[in-house]
């Protein structure tokens, strides 16, 4: 695993989400800042009871500076709506705050963050969780699971089931919306994603 300095020196101990967003633009905790347009931190109310954690910003998110506003984000919005969740009432973020990609001509193609990137970026996610204090964390995909639970956790084996994070916060895992976009059985897998989000709603209401 490539070891990076880590984001901790750049994460402000004081201030709210706006201070966090500003400080993230100066982060040099790993090498991803070099190619990315900007850091993309979480978005949503500080009082959100539910936090959704994905992988990293994609091409559209990197350009616009907001999480989940590209194709996967639009699919997530549809799934949240069908599950009875108002996106404006949840906090949405990613485990890694800069876009990792490779180039094919002029196109920027998503590249999965390395373990070193996930570890280096951990303090940003930890600070977001401290500020928002969600009652429930929804883990979207394997990278978020690696960041929040650890390397041994399998989303496909544990999706939709209540779990507890190391600090005692309730969580539930499901697939990343981008995997539904790539699926050959998109309608079926979209339905399963909605089912998992409904399970999250029930857990939050229990």
UniProtKB/TrEMBL annotation:
<protein>
    <recommendedName>
        <fullName>Type-4 uracil-DNA glycosylase</fullName>
    </recommendedName>
</protein>
<dbReference type="InterPro" id="IPR051536">
    <property type="entry name" value="UDG_Type-4/5"/>
</dbReference>
<dbReference type="Pfam" id="PF03167">
    <property type="entry name" value="UDG"/>
</dbReference>
<keyword id="KW-0411">Iron-sulfur</keyword>
<keyword id="KW-0234">DNA repair</keyword>
<dbReference type="InterPro" id="IPR036895">
    <property type="entry name" value="Uracil-DNA_glycosylase-like_sf"/>
</dbReference>
<keyword id="KW-0004">4Fe-4S</keyword>
<keyword id="KW-0479">Metal-binding</keyword>
<dbReference type="InterPro" id="IPR005273">
    <property type="entry name" value="Ura-DNA_glyco_family4"/>
</dbReference>
<keyword id="KW-0227">DNA damage</keyword>
<comment type="similarity">
    <text>Belongs to the uracil-DNA glycosylase (UDG) superfamily. Type 4 (UDGa) family.</text>
</comment>
<keyword id="KW-0408">Iron</keyword>
<keyword id="KW-0378">Hydrolase</keyword>
<feature type="domain" description="Uracil-DNA glycosylase-like">
    <location>
        <begin position="41"/>
        <end position="198"/>
    </location>
</feature>
<dbReference type="InterPro" id="IPR005122">
    <property type="entry name" value="Uracil-DNA_glycosylase-like"/>
</dbReference>
